[in-house]
């Protein structure tokens, strides 16, 4: 059994890191909003999905105009990422202003139900627009990077099988790491980041110190939504096919990653996302081997959530989180 697991390990790590990077960046949006408002923004998964559709629409427009073949792939990617991030960032700010801000003093259950309602609204709106334009809500994304790279893992250890990955794997990983490092630097080194940390710690005291709490919260939603939208573009480029419902399960997994790493902890969200992605791919490849074909790859989610339950039983604040006193 160990030999079989080792054979697929290089490919599992490559696929797991790709998926984990997507989870990690989406989880950042959840953990930023929770850190300041203690709100689980369940519409965040749909913002990610909307970003995937916006990015795909921009790529299709570029392709129709002939720009996609004229521009270098890296330049085209940067343009699409910037435009999509701005669009989803403004969308996130709009959702906060219209749906969440009027309910800021309401019970958390009401705000949670509102977030779920916004999630369904975005799903159906994107599906309606997609079917109106294309006649189908399942959309294929134009290829921006092509080619595969072979990894001679067997040269490192004879038990390993060789692995392959698409060029987009490198793109996803590099862009995700840049976004995560950029966010970490912004939160810890900039004045706005300091304001975010102050509001997260005590919004009332922060407002007495001349910090505009509403602006800080709006900026938080903008940054989190911009990162989510950019990740949607990366997802669409790597997997090639999107639909209005990808945000639900991916958003749920990203939320799980945030909880696994420590909700409200930015580094915890990064670590939790990468860990969850690797665990999920490991289960998909090896669950049938480990259970004697009793459970197949379709039970990979059960495996991942079982790990989460165990972590929360023994370390409820998450792997990198710290126990905190409930604010009153």
Your description of this structure?
- The protein is built from twelve helices and four strands; from the N terminus they run H-H-H-H-H-E-E-E-H-H-H-H-E-H-H-H.
- It has 328 residues and is mainly alpha-helical.
- A two-stranded antiparallel sheet has the order 1-4. Strands 2-3 form a two-stranded antiparallel ribbon.
- The longest helix has 36 residues, at 2-37.
Number of helices: 12
Spatial strand order of the main sheet: 1-4
What is the terminal separation in angstroms? 52 Å
In helices, the fraction of residues equals over 70%
In percent, how much strand structure appears in the residues? under 5%
Label the structural class.
Answer: mainly alpha
**Rg calc:** 20 Å
Mean of the pLDDT scores? 86
**Overall 3D form:** globular
| Low-pLDDT segments, ≥5 res | none
